[in-house]
Write a structure and sequence with these properties.
Blueprint lengths: L11 E4 L4 E3 L4 E3 L8 E6 L7 E3 L6 E4 L4 E4 L5 E3 L1 E7 L1
Antiparallel strand pairs: 1-4, 2-3, 4-9, 5-8, 6-7
């Protein structure tokens, strides 16, 4: 998941913006989110060590016929979590 503001000593995180829940037979879709649904996830070790970096991207700005270009590097940070429970 994308990096959010959490305390470094947190053990679990609660995600309340759930878009869709399926149990194999029934599918519930929110508009835009499901009311009362939440996902409880935990970190493998600690929240501070669960931060990982994605592959580095290099977007470019290029101006045609101007002999001008600019290359920017960006690396998104993510939280590595394990889903424990999905409550609908």
């Amino acid at each position: 998941i994308e990096l959010t503001d959490i305390s470094p000593d947190a053990e679990t995180i609660e995600l309340d913006k759930v878009l869709l829940i399926s149990d194999g037979e029934e599918v519930k879709v929110g508009t835009p989110f499901l009311e009362g649904a939440k996902v409880i996830a935990s970190f493998k070790t600690t929240a501070e060590e669960a931060v990982i970096k994605a592959k580095k991207l290099f977007p470019m700005q290029f101006r045609r016929r101007k002999n001008s270009k600019r290359r920017i590097g960006h690396r998104q940070k993510y939280l590595q979590v394990v889903i424990d429970k999905i409550e609908a």
